[in-house]
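=== RUN LOG ===
request id: a7f3
mode: sequence -> structure
chains: 1
length: 127
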Amino acid sequence: MKIVSWPPTDKEKTIPLGKKIPDGIMKTMHFWAYDEILGQALIVCDDDVSFRLTDPVDLLNLERVDLEALAQSQIRSTEKYEDIAKGWTVAVTGVLHISKKGFLLGGDCWNLKVYAKRVTNSSGLIF
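=== RESULT ===
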């Protein structure tokens, strides 16, 4: 058996964090689209304000009124990436359902905000 080792990289490991989406901002939303170059959802609002969602998990940070605005608006995409864009709308529907009905966690019914607070406190994750 031969052991091969590589020298450590000179590059820093960075985790890109999107900017916080203010509550109720979707009232001013013009449209949302799937950016096939970056693989993200782009939300364009008034005053040239735009937000990017890097992962469907980011939808957990939105308030119910914002989720309802996204659910009522069709996501734009090119024909080639239409199926991937529809995955975002399915995720919006799922998170909206969770925020309205709650979900089961360990036999108890929790709502989204209680769960997010519990996860934040126990493991340091920030929702």
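=== NOTES ===
The chain has one domain: 25-123.
Residues 82-101 form the longest helix (20 residues).
=== END ===
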